[in-house]
Amino acid sequence: MFHTSRSRSTTMGGLRLLLLIYHGSVRHVRRSHRNALVGLVMNILQTVIFVAAFYLMFTLIPGMRGSAIRGDFLLYLMSGIFLFLTFNKTMGAVIASEGPASPMMQHAPMNTIVAIGSAAFGTLYIQILSMLVVGFVYHTAFTPITIHDPADAFAMVMLSWFSGLSIGMVFLAMKPWAPGFVGLVSTIFQRMNMIASGKMFVANMLPGYMLALFDWNPLFHCIDQARGFTFINYNPHFTSIEYPLYISIALIMVGLMGEFYTRKFASASWYARR
């Protein structure tokens, strides 16, 4: 008489999972600062500082500006920096999400999929909001900008987010087994993306021997394709949409299988000596 019956249908289970991810995403957004609005403003300021730093670097270093696409120079910078931040922050958030041995998993509705989804969608929300605010302020306060194909350009933002999620899933599955190694490798990979992402140049202007150094990176393809959709006078010849998409699908499958295997064996005692 004191038990509330619950529907066990697939639809209700999916809706309950989405609701948990939504509340987890809100918690993730508010975690960076006690005041959610201040946390969002801090992320927007970080994006602005990133854009300003690269603008100064391109302006002060001779020859750097020649690698830009003909058109609005700040839009060229933002088209690379927005995707770079979305990729790196999503990957970092997924790696840092609660694992199977976290105290949060003691709560009945909570599981690792909710934790991963909350971290990924919370980061996506913050990055999209920052991108829209920075772009709107630049468009209204400084100079009007025109994006050639905004829908497909935004799709590349989502693809970069999905790529960061998939790579973060692989690192997360490995993390309980070798936390120090995973932390080191993920940090190196994030720092390496400062150059390997291709946000400072375009693929069409690279010689063949240099192109081979960057075309393994899904983010390099996402940024180059995004610039093709952003600028009417740029057509990417050496990158594709299919490569980051297929690589991300494969990696997220590997990450899910690894996370499922790790979840069966992970124990809080692994971290007792730490």
How are the SSEs ordered, and which strands pair?
Elements: H1 10-31, H2 36-60, H3 73-95, H4 112-141, H5 150-174, H6 179-196, H7 208-211, H8 218-230, H9 242-265
Helix pairs in contact: 1-4, 2-3, 2-4, 3-4, 3-5, 3-8, 5-8, 5-9, 8-9
Structural notes for this entry:
The protein starts with 9 loop residues before the first helix and ends in a 9-residue tail after the last helix. It is mainly α and 274 residues long. The radius of gyration is 20 Å and the shape is globular. The mean pLDDT is 81. The protein contains 9 helices and no strands. Helix 3 runs antiparallel to helix 4 (112-141) and helix 8 (218-230) packs across helix 9 (242-265).
What is the average of the pLDDT values?
81
Question: What gap, in angstroms, lies between the N and C termini?
Answer: 46 Å
Helix content: 55-70%
Radius of gyration: 20 Å
Identify the notable features of this structure and list them briefly:
mainly alpha
Brief overview, please?
The chain has 274 residues and is mostly helical. The protein is 67% helix and 0% strand.
